[in-house]
Write a structure and sequence with these properties.
heterodimer, A: 166 residues, alpha+beta, Beta-Lactamase, B: 951 residues, mainly alpha, two-stranded antiparallel sheet, extended, protein transport (chain B), AP-4 complex subunit epsilon (chain B)
C-alpha cells in the first residue's frame, strides 16, 4: 500500500502531506525534513528511486519526481511497483495540470483543499483507486459543481496564477 | 486580485502564504505561524461565523498543522463541520478530521454517528466523503458500527461508491481481519463486477488475502488469467488506457497476484504461461508504464514454476533494461536480475559489464541495488572482490543505517566464503575499524570464537599462525586513535589469550599496551573490563610458566584506580587480579589454564567441595542449613531437632540441598579416560594440558545427529568446525549432491558466458572497455579465460584453495559427467569453485553457535562467547557417552578440593543436583547459561573463595 504522499518545494517547505497511517505531527515533520535532506542531495539524471528504509522503516520504498520547483514524493511498500508509482505521480500531476492549466507551486498552495480532493480520488486509504486523469477530473468537477450549488458560491478557477503574474 | 483567492481563499490566507514564503528564517516563519494561530483561535470561537468563512479557517488550520504547528484547538470545530448539511462544509469537515485525527482519538466518537447517517445519504458525494473518513478514522472497535452500511454500499448503483466501499472493507480487513472474515466472499463476488474499475479495486484486497493464504484462492487462477487476457487483448473500455497501454495498473496487480499463486505450483503456473508470454510479446517497451508491466512480468516469471521460454524473454527484457540510458530502468534491471539469477544463475554473466557500470554509477540508489545483487551472487571465487568493494563503499558513506546493513553483509559473506584465515581476519578488522559500533556485538563474539577455536583444519600450526597474525595486526591497529568499543573488546580479549603465546612479544609489552587501552578509553567500562581480564590472563600465564612477573608501574596505578572504581564489576575484576597474582604457579594454572577458552566448565551448583567442611562442622555441633523454603516450619523443626538431631534428619525432613553425595569426582582425569571420548578428535597439540582435554565437547557437538536440523541454505559455511564423525556421512551426501548440481550450473554458466560475451562485445565494438573494468568483471563473474590466471593466482592465495585446485583434477572424470561440454581450458577456473566439494564434501560445516542460539536466548549466547564456546552437549548421544566418564567436567572443584575424594559418603549431606548431565540438551544448556551467569570467564570465579580453600 501507499504509505504517504508528500509535495514539497525545492526549499524543503511542505506543500502537501498526507500519511495513510496515522503519525503524530512532529513525526510527520521529521520525516518530511529527512526526505528533503535526501532529495536535495541528489543529482540530476539519476534514478527516481531512493532506498527509504532508514527513514520509513523496513519494507518501504520511495519514488519522487521533480517538477520545476516541486518534489512529488510517494512512499509505499513492496506491494507496489516502482515504475508504476512513477506513472501514478505522472497521473497526479497531469490531473493537477488539467485542473489548473499549467500547474505551478502557488496553485497547490492556494487550492489546498482541492488538491486533497484530487488526491483522494486517486488514492483511497493507501490503495490506488483511479489511474485515469480524465476520470479523476470528472469526479472532481462533479464535486466542485455540487459544492458550488450547495453554497451558491461562484467558482473562480485559476485565479492564483493571475494574482501571481501581476 | 488577492481577494479572489483561488478555491475560495481570502486575502488573509494569501497574505499568510506569501509572508511565510518570504520568511527568511525558520524563527521568522514560526513567529508568523504562531500569530496566525492566535488569530484563528480568536476568530474560530466567535459565534455565528458564516459557513464559508468557517471553511476557510479550517483550511488555514490544516495548513498550519502541515507546517508542523499544533492546531488541536480547532479539532472540535472540524468535527462540528462534519455535522453540517451543506456538502461543501461537510466535505471540508471530513477532510480536516481525516488529516487531524487518528483512529483512537477521543473525538472520533462524535463522528461515528454522522458517518453512519452519511453512509445512507442519497447524495453519492456525501457517501464518498463518509467512506473516505471511514477508511481513516474507524478502528477495530467502531468497525461493527459502520460495517452493515458499508456492505450495503457494495451494491450501490454508482461504481465510484462501490469502488470505495470495497476499499473501505479492505481497510477493515487490514485493521482487524477477524471483523470482516465472514465477508471475504464479497471480494470474490465483486471480482465479477461489470465495471472494470470496481474489479480493479477488488484486486487490492484479494492481493492481501492471497499473500496471507495462497491455497484457498488457487481456484481463482483461471479467473485471474482470463481477466488478464481480456485486458491484454484490449477488451476493457478505452477509458482505461493509459499511454496506449490497456489498463496497465490492473495488469500489474494481476501479475503480482499470479506470481503469488503460481509460486511453487507447477499446475497453476502452467495456466499462466500463455498470457504472460503474450504480455512479453505485446508490451510496448518505449513507455515507462510498459516497462513497469514488463518488470512485473519478470517478477512473475521468476516466482512461478520456471518455464524456459519465459525465462528467455525475461532475460531479454533485463538486458534491454540494463543497456538503457535511464537510471530507473537500470535500477529495475538490476533488481530483476537479482530475482532471476536465483533460477538461472548463468544470465548474470552476460551482463557483467552493465552491472559494473551500475556499481560505478554516481547514483547511490543504483549502487546500493547493485550491491544487493552482488551480495546475492557471491561465491567463493569472487568473494574477495565483492567484499572489498562493499567495504570501500561502506567507508565512503555516512548513512548509519545502510552502513550497519552493509557491514553485516560483509561479515556474513566473509564467514561463508572466506578463502583464507588471514583474509578473514583482515576483512573483519576493516569492518570493525570503520563500522565498529554499528556492528552487532555477536559478530565480535563470533570473531573471538573463531580465533580461539581455530578453523577446523587438521593442522594446528595454521591456527597458531592465525592467532599470532591476529595479535600482530591488533598491536598495529592499537596505534590508531579512536577505535570502536566493540573492536577494542575483541583486541583486548585476543591479546589476553594469545598475546604472549608465540613468544614474539614479551608479557610486559602486551601489558603495557593493555594498560594504554584502559587508560585511553577510560570512559568505556566494558573495554576496561576486557582489558583488566586480559591483564589477569597475561599475568597468570607468566606465573604458570614459572616466570617471575613484576607489576609494571602503569599497571599498578591502573589497578589502584580500579580498586576504587565506582563500577563494582571493574572493582571485582581488579581484586581478582590482585588475588590471583598472589597465588603459586600450580593454583594459577588451575584458575587460568592457558588456551582453554574453548573448553567446557562445569559449576558445581551443589558446592559439593564444601561437603567435608560441613561435615566437620556438623560433627562439631553446628546446625545443618535449612533452605529458605522450608524455614516456615522452623519452630517445629527446631523442637524436633532438640530431641534428637540425627533422628530428625532420618525422619523425612529431607533438605534438598544435602542429598546423598554421588560417587566422588576424580581430581585428575586419567589420560585413559580419553579413550571414551574418541568422538572428540581434538588435535593434541592444540591443548597442551592433557588434563583438560576431555572437556572439549564443542567439537563433538557438530557431529551429532542434531546437525540435521541445521539450516545449511545450500551453501557451505567455510567457517566453523568440520565434523570427523562418520555418522554424518549420510547427511553429507545430500549436500555434496547439491554442490554437484551447482557444478553443472556454474559450468553451464561459464560456457554461456564465453559465448554471450563474444556477442555482447561484437555488438558494441566501438565501446572501449577499460582493461581494469574487464578485470573486475572477470573477478566478479569468473569470466573469460583471459582473466582466469588472475583469479587463480591473485585471489586464491590460501594454501587450502590451491590444494583444492590440485585435487580437483583428480575427479575430473566425474566432473565431466556433470558438465559435458565444458571446454577443458576453462576447467581450472571453475574447478576452483567446484573442486571444493570433492575435498570438503565431508565438511558440512556447521556453526555450532547457531545451534546454541536456537536453544538459549540471545543474551546468554552473548555472554557465552566471552569464554569461547563451551557449547556443551547438544546431541543426546554424545551426552550419554559423556556422562559416563567419571570426570563429568567437574574439574575445577575436583582439582581444588582433592580431600573430597576421601570424604565419607555422608548420610546427612547429599548433593542436590542430579550430577549427570541429562540427555536433554536444553537442560545442559540452561546449566551452561547458569555457569556463565555466575562468572564472566571460566577462571574468574571468586578468587577469595579459592584463597580460603587453598589456605
Amino acid at each position: 500500500m501507499i504509505k504517504a504522499v508528500m509535495v514539497m518545494n525545492t526549499q524543503g517547505k511542505p506543500r502537501l502531506a498526507k500519511f495513510y497511517e496515522y503519525l503524530p505531527v512532529e513525526k510527520q515533520q521529521e520525516l518530511i525534513r529527512r526526505v528533503f535532506a535526501v532529495l536535495c542531495g541528489r543529482a540530476e539524471n539519476v534514478s527516481n528511486f531512493i532506498e527509504a528504509e532508514s527513514i520509513f522503516g523496513p519494507d518501504s520504498r520511495l519514488v519522487y519526481k521533480h517538477f520545476a520547483t516541486l518534489y512529488f514524493v510517494f512512499v509505499f511498500d513492496s506491494s507496489e511497483n516502482e515504475l508504476a508509482v512513477l506513472d501514478l505521480i505522472q497521473v497526479f500531476v497531469e490531473t493537477l495540470d488539467k485542473c489548473f492549466k499549467n500547474v505551478c507551486e502557488l496553485d497547490i498552495v492556494f487550492n489546498y483543499s482541492k488538491i486533497h480532493t484530487i488526491l483522494d480520488e486517486i488514492i483511497f486509504g493507501g490503495q490506488v483507486l483511479e489511474t485515469s486523469s480524465a476520470e479523476v477530473m470528472k469526479a472532481v468537477e462533479e464535486i466542485s459543481k455540487l459544492e458550488a450549488a450547495s453554497n451558491a458560491i461562484t467558482l473562480i478557477p485559476k485565479s492564483a496564477s493571475g494574482w501571481r503574474s501581476r | 486580485m488577492g481577494s479572489q483567492g483561488g478555491f475560495y481563499q481570502s486575502k488573509e490566507f494569501l497574505d499568510l502564504v506569501k509572508s511565510i514564503g518570504e520568511a527568511r528564517s525558520k524563527a521568522e516563519e514560526d513567529r508568523i505561524v504562531l500569530n496566525e494561530i492566535e488569530t484563528l483561535k480568536r476568530r474560530i470561537s466567535e459565534p455565528d461565523i458564516p459557513k464559508r468563512k468557517m471553511k476557510e479557517y479550517i483550511i488555514r488550520l490544516v495548513y498550519v498543522e502541515m507546517l508542523g504547528h499544533d492546531a488541536s484547538f480547532g479539532y472540535i470545530h472540524a468535527v462540528k463541520m462534519t455535522h453540517d448539511d451543506s456538502l461543501l462544509v461537510k466535505r471540508t469537515g471530513y477532510l480536516a478530521v481525516t488529516l487531524f485525527l487518528n483512529e483512537d482519538h477521543d473525538l472520533i466518537i462524535l463522528i461515528v454517528n454522522t458517518i453512519q447517517k452519511d453512509l445512507k445519504s442519497d447524495n453519492f458525494l456525501v457517501v464518498c466523503a463518509a467512506l473516505n473518513a471511514v477508511s481513516k478514522l474507524i478502528n477495530e472497535e467502531t468497525i461493527p458500527a459502520v460495517l452493515p452500511q458499508v456492505v450495503e454500499l457494495l451494491a450501490h448503483p454508482k461504481e465510484a461508491v462501490r469502488k470505495k466501499a470495497i476499499m473501505a472493507l479492505h481497510r477493515f480487513y487490514q485493521k482487524s481481519p477477524s471483523s470482516v472474515s465472514h465477508l471475504v466472499s464479497n471480494f470474490r463476488k465483486r471480482l465479477c463486477d461489470n465495471d472494470p474499475g470496481v474489479m480493479g479495486a477488488t484486486l487490492c484486497p484479494l492481493f492481501d488475502l492471497i499473500t496471507r493464504d495462497v491455497n484457498s484462492y488457487k481456484d481463482l487462477v483461471i479467473s485471474f488469467v482470463s481477466i488478464l487476457k481480456q485486458v491484454v487483448e484490449r477488451r476493457v473500455p478505452k477509458a482505461y488506457d493509459y499511454h496506449q497501454m490497456p489498463a496497465p495498473f490492473i495488469q500489474i496487480k494481476l501479475l503480482k497476484i499470479l506470481a503469488l499463486l503460481g509460486s511453487g505450483d507447477k499446475q497453476s503456473s502452467a495456466k499462466m504461461y500463455t498470457v504472460v508470454g503474450d504480455i512479453f510479446r505485446k508490451c510496448d517497451s518505449s513507455s515507462n508504464i510498459g516497462n513497469a508491466i514488463l518488470y512485473e512480468c519478470i517478477c512473475c516469471v521468476s516466482s512461478i514454476y520456471p518455464n524456459p521460454k519465459l525465462l528467455e524473454s525475461a532475460a531479454d527484457v533485463i538486458s534491454r533494461f540494463l543497456k538503457s540510458d535511464s537510471h530507473n530502468l537500470k535500477y529495475m534491471g538490476v533488481d530483476a536480475l537479482g530475482r532471476l539469477i536465483k533460477i538461472s544463475p548463468e544470465i548474470a554473466e552476460q551482463h557483467q559489464l552493465a552491472v559494473i557500470d551500475c556499481l560505478e554509477d554516481p547514483d547511490d540508489t543504483l549502487k546500493r541495488k547493485t550491491f544487493e545483487l552482488l551480495y546475492k551472487m557471491t561465491k567463493s571465487t569472487n568473494v574477495e572482490v565483492i567484499v572489498d568493494r562493499m567495504i570501500d563503499y561502506m567507508i565512503s558513506i555516512n548513512d548509519n543505517h545502510y552502513k550497519t546493513e552493509i557491514a553485516s553483509r560483509c561479515v556474513e559473506l566473509a564467514e561463508q566464503f572466506a578463502p583464507s584465515n588471514r583474509w578473514f581476519i583482515q576483512t573483519m578488522n576493516k569492518v570493525f575499524e570503520h563500522a565498529g559500533d554499528l556492528v552487532n556485538i555477536k559478530v565480535a563474539h563470533n570473531l573471538m570464537r573463531l580465533i580461539a577455536e581455530g578453523f577446523g583444519e587438521d593442522d594446528d600450526t595454521a591456527d597458531s599462525q592465525l592467532r599470532s597474525s591476529a595479535v600482530e595486526s591488533y598491536l598495529c591497529i592499537l596505534g590508531e586513535p579512536k577505535l570502536p568499543s566493540v573492536f577494542l573488546q575483541v583486541i583486548c580479549w585476543v591479546l589476553g589469550e594469545y598475546g604472549t603465546t608465540d613468544g614474539k612479544f614479551s608479557a610486559s609489552y602486551i601489558i603495557g599496551k593493555l594498560c594504554d587501552v584502559a587508560e585511553a578509553y577510560s570512559n568505556d567500562e566494558t573495554v576496561k573490563a576486557y582489558a583488566v581480564t586480559a591483564l589477569m590472563k597475561i599475568h597468570t600465564f607468566e606465573i604458570a610458566a614459572g616466570r617471575k612477573v613484576d607489576m609494571l608501574p602503569e599497571c599498578q596505578s591502573l589497578m589502584e584506580e580500579l580498586l576504587a572504581s565506582h563500577s563494582t564489576d571493574l572493582q571485582q575484576r581488579a581484586y581478582e587480579l590482585q588475588a590471583v597474582i598472589g597465588l603459586d604457579a600450580h593454583a594459577v594454572a588451575c584458575i587460568m589454564p592457558s588456551d582453554a577458552s574453548c573448553e567446557d566448565i562445569e559449576v558445581d551448583k551443589g558446592l559439593s567441595f564444601l561437603n567435608g567442611y560441613i561435615q566437620e562442622s556438623i560433627e562439631k555441633g553446628a546446625q545443618p542449613y535449612i533452605p529458605e523454603s522450608e524455614r516456615s516450619g522452623m519452630l517445629n523443626i527446631s523442637n524436633f531437632r532438640s530431641q534428637d538431631h540425627h533422628e530428625a534428619s532420618s525422619h523425612g525432613l529431607r533438605f534438598e540441598a544435602y542429598e546423598l553425595p554421588k560417587p566422588i569426582v576424580q581430581s585428575k582425569i586419567p589420560p585413559a579416560s580419553l579413550a571414551s571420548t574418541e568422538l572428540v578428535p581434538v588435535p593434541e597439540k592444540m591443548y597442551p594440558r592433557e588434563s583438560y582435554q576431555t572437556t572439549v565437547p564443542s567439537v563433538s557437538s557438530d557431529a551429532g545427529p542434531s546437525e540435521l536440523k541445521l539450516r545449511l541454505d545450500g551453501v557451505q559455511m567455510k567457517w566453523g568446525r568440520p565434523t570427523f564423525s562418520p555418522a554424518t556421512s549420510t547427511s553429507n551426501s545430500t549436500i555434496s549432491q547439491k554442490t554437484v548440481n551447482g557444478i553443472t550450473q556454474v559450468d553451464g554458466a561459464s560456457t554461456a558466458n564465453s559465448r554471450t560475451r563474444e556477442t555482447y562485445d561484437s555488438r558494441k565494438p566501438q565501446v572501449e572497455i577499460s582493461p581494469e573494468k574487464k578485470k573486475l568483471a572477470a573477478s566478479l563473474f569468473g569470466g573469460s579465460s583471459k582473466t582466469e590466471k588472475r583469479a587463480a593466482t591473485g585471489h586464491k592465495i590460501s594454501k587450502s584453495s590451491s590444494h583444492m585446485v590440485e585435487k580437483s583434477h583428480v575427479p575430473k572424470s566425474s566432473m565431466e559427467v556433470a558438465s559435458e561440454k565444458t571446454p577443458p581450458v576453462q576447467q581450472p577456473l571453475d574447478l576452483l569453485d567446484l573442486g571444493e566439494p570433492t575435498v570438503t564434501s565431508t565438511v558440512p560445516s556447521v556453526d555450532p553457535f547457531k545451534q546454541l542460539e536456537g536453544l538459549v536466548d540471545t543474551t546468554q549466547v552473548a555472554s557465552a562467547v566471552n569464554h569461547g564456546l563451551t557449547a556443551a552437549a547438544k546431541s543426546p548421544d554424545i551426552m550419554a557417552l559423556y556422562s559416563e566418564t567419571p570426570a563429568d567436567g567437574d574439574l575445577l572443584s575436583g582439582v581444588l578440593n582433592p580431600s573430597m575424594t576421601n570424604m565419607p559418603g555422608g548420610t546427612t549431606t547429599r548433593q542436590s543436583m542430579p550430577r549427570s548431565k541429562g540427555p536433554n540438551p536444553k537442560d545442559s544448556l540452561e546449566k551452561d547459561a547458569l555457569v556463565r551467569q555466575m562468572g564472566v570467564t571460566p577462571a574468574s570465579q571468586n578468587p577469595n573463595l579459592f584463597k580460603d580453600l587453598l589456605g
